[in-house]
Design goal:
Order of helices and strands: HHHHEEEEEEEHHHHHHHHHH
Structural class: mainly alpha
Low-confidence stretches: none
Distance between the termini: 32 Å
Largest sheet: 3 strands, antiparallel
Number of domains: 2
Shape: elongated
CATH architecture of the largest domain: Orthogonal Bundle
Mean pLDDT: 84
CATH class of the largest domain: Mainly Alpha
Number of helices: 14
Strand order of the largest sheet: 1-2-5
CATH superfamily of the largest domain: MetI-like
Helix content: 55-70%
Strand content: 5-15%
Amino acid sequence: MTDTKDKSTTAKNDATDLYMASQWRLMWIRFKDHRLAHLALYFAAGLYLIALFCEFVAPNAPTGRNIERKLCPPQRVRIVHEGRPRWPFVYPVVRHKDPETLALSYTLDQTRPLSLRFFAKGDPYRLWTVIPMRRHLVGVGGEGDKVYFMGGDKLGRDLCSRIIYGSRVSLSVGLIGVTLSLVLGILIGGISGFYGGLTDTLIQRLIEILRSFPTIPLWLALSAAMPPTWGQLRVYFCMTVILACIGWTGVARVVRGKILALREEDYAMAARVAGTRETAIILRHLVPGFMSHLIVTVTIAIPRMILAETSLSFLRLGLRPPTISWGVLLQDAQNVNAVALYPWLMFPVLFVIVTVLTFNFLGDGMRDAADPYKN
């Protein structure tokens, strides 16, 4: 009898807490019920952590060339050597060149397994270009021995390390581009929805003109305007601004529609009567009322930005070598014959697909959680 009363009291307290919870608390409770989106949140956080500490996570230097590893196949991690289990290891590869055809081939040296080590010494680097270090997350630790988990490219560079370094550029382009487009969308869409009249008409016509341009030709024109003599940092910044200038229109439409629905509410009218400035009314009173919808919009927009950067760089219209991004790495896979002979050159595509799916799942979960009172 006592257990029944305790359970009833606990259920009643949970119902009371749920009734008194804030909107963000309700969103989080509903978001946790979406297990796939909950998992995608942690996976996305892991991707950005890898991008943040890419120098430490990458097993080798991204620009280190090794002629002995030119188009080397991936080294598979194994746990069985000579029929007995052991600590994870890889077999070193040995290059052979045919004296008649000069064709390269690789074999495994199964007599000398290389055990994998955590925090192993490797190529020197500077963490965030400031802190000198030599420790890597995973390595083999031997002098002259390196592990190529995803094979080598045409110059003998470690493809796995280059993909990890490329995540910093590709993921940051999406994040920074969406942030800029969010700021532009809130300001321009807020002005359009709050003032209405001629201002709203002019802004909406501008948005319709920008959205009427075909995306790829517009990218081609804007990318062609960048001089080839520009440095890496300037091209990166210009690419981010271009993607933001194209992507703000969708956010502005969402903000305009929400502000048109909220500007006549009592709290907005009270703020206006109290003499609050229009900018403060938009940013402090109206925008927080639909912030959850903006978060969903941003979550869905990030993969579009990443795909845009990857597409432009793949077509040699965006970032260019020696900058490392997923789109730049895919330039080596433009030749069908190269892909057929060296399929590991397509590994960057897997990272793009996984990242886009992660943000799509995350956006689906946040979209469902944006309406906490929905059954």
